Amino acid sequence: NNRIKIKTLLSGDAAGQQVTVMGWVRSFRNNQFIALNDGSTNNNLQVVVELGQLDEPTLKRITTGASLKITGQVVESLGKGQKLEVKATTLEILGDCDAEKYPLQLKNRPSLEYLREIAHLRFRTNTFGAIFRVRHALAFAIHEFFNKQGFVYLHTPIITASDAEGAGETFRVTTLPFDNPPRTAAGEIDFAEDFFGKSTNLTVSGQLEGELGAMAFSEVYTFGPTFRAENSNTTRHLAEFWMIEPEMAFYDLEDNMNLAEAFIKYLIGYVMTNNREDLEFLDQRLAEEEKQKPQAERSEMGLIEKLEFVLNNNFERITYTEAIRILLDSPAYKKKKFKYDVSWGIDMQSEHERYLVEKHFKKPVIVTNYPKDIKAFYMRLNDDGKTVAAMDILAPGIGEIVGGSQREERLEKLEGRMHDMHIPTEELNWYLDTRRYGAVPHAGFGLGFERIVLFVTGMTNIRDVIPFARTPKNCEF
Ligand code: 4AD
Ligand code: MG
């Protein structure tokens, strides 16, 4: 099989060569011009069949969605929009596609909502082709970034016995029968009889295990799926999402922020260089979508312009206390535009976060030193006794994309916090050992992978940047 991918063909100088291409028909005009796509690029290859070359039944089978194998000669194209095309010498139909039934056989551009219903086919559209090539590139760039800096990629477990965030949003993993499970003397389900001999769940974060790795390798990261049974049906939440969590020994909060900012910029820079074509397509798509909105609601910058801006400007850095002050002083607050009230101690709602990044600073913002009562047990207590060394990165159009902190490395303080939050220390003895044996200051963060894909692609619904979204009441594919 000496097949050449369409992207390679179109970007090279193959004129005069004999090639084999395979792909799916995007359109067929005048019984002569086939637009063929193989997913390597949104640019279709024009394949020309000579009039009279194919019999009538074969011509009828060249429908949108059908798969073809074509051999032919690469020639300079006379048509506009492409440099090269292929003159077919042989054409084989690999798989027919019933034009009457094919869900993507549409005259108008299908809506994103409609495509979500046929997520098993939507990869074949230009929009999703571009999105998932960019998603792939970002995943690759993540490994490249950390590998270059000597981080060790640590595979943290999917099944755990802990709830790292202590938020009680875990999916349980069990092999116990639903009808008549074993019970303890007290009548409760007896997880001692379960597969692992205890109650287990899908991980909400690989951080705790990441910390164990950092205490040996100095710098590690995990990148894998995480699961949260939070019942928030929003455009920013998934029940199954991917997270990147670096964890670094000898880092304080500022080192952590510096790494997170450099990391995000690296990812953006990577796709700007390597996925230009797809970004230009998505930029155009977004511009068309924006045109449908009333003038006042349109974003000021195009997608590529926004990415360039983020690359070339420092993230704003403010404390939580400053953020609350800005919100209280804002016209939005004074005119009662916020749905949720603002006061020191609140867990900022997305409307507040978006005000800060979109209206006030107009750039990504790192908010630090949150009240301890709204943050996880492992964050380092500040000297004021009220706040912890946390940092969240908020991005325009999205809100929170990163959550991180310097960790509490002092055993008594950590145990005290766990006690206050009713987290049993016995079950996390393995974790506490890192504070007993050679503890060091350390820090880390979690970047929501789909959130950064949203940001880079300019998409607005998180269901559109993961191949198969899991959200409340939805596990179709
Ligand atoms: O802020 P979170 O909950 O932090 C942690 O899990 C820490 N253990 C990370 C660490 O310090 N190692 O989640 C981190 C990020 C959020 O900022 C957000 O981008 C993303 O994960 N995230 C979600 N993305 C999609 N759907 C959800 N339900 C998400 N929940 C969090
Ligand atoms: Mg968070």
TrEMBL record:
Highest taxon of source: Bacteria
Positions in coiled-coil regions: 272-299
Any one Gene Ontology molecular-function term assigned to this protein's record: asparagine-tRNA ligase activity
Aminoacyl-transfer RNA synthetases class-II family profile domain ranges (all copies): 132-467
Catalytic activity of the protein: tRNA(Asn) + L-asparagine + ATP = L-asparaginyl-tRNA(Asn) + AMP + diphosphate + H(+)
EC number: 6.1.1.22
Protein's UniProt keywords contain Coiled coil: yes
InterPro entries in the cross-refs: Aa-tRNA-synt_II, aa-tRNA-synth_II, aa-tRNA-synth_II/BPL/LPL, Asn-tRNA-ligase, Asp/Asn-tRNA-synth_IIb, NA-bd_OB-fold, NA-bd_OB_tRNA
Keyword Transferase: no
Single biological process term from Gene Ontology: asparaginyl-tRNA aminoacylation
GO cellular component: cytoplasm
Keywords carried by this UniProt record: Aminoacyl-tRNA synthetase, ATP-binding, Coiled coil, Cytoplasm, Ligase, Nucleotide-binding, Protein biosynthesis
Leading EC class: ligase
Subunit: Homodimer.
Stated family: Belongs to the class-II aminoacyl-tRNA synthetase family.
NCBIfam families: asnS, PRK03932.1
Protein name: Asparagine--tRNA ligase
Organism from which the protein derives: Deminuibacter soli
Chain's gene name: asnS
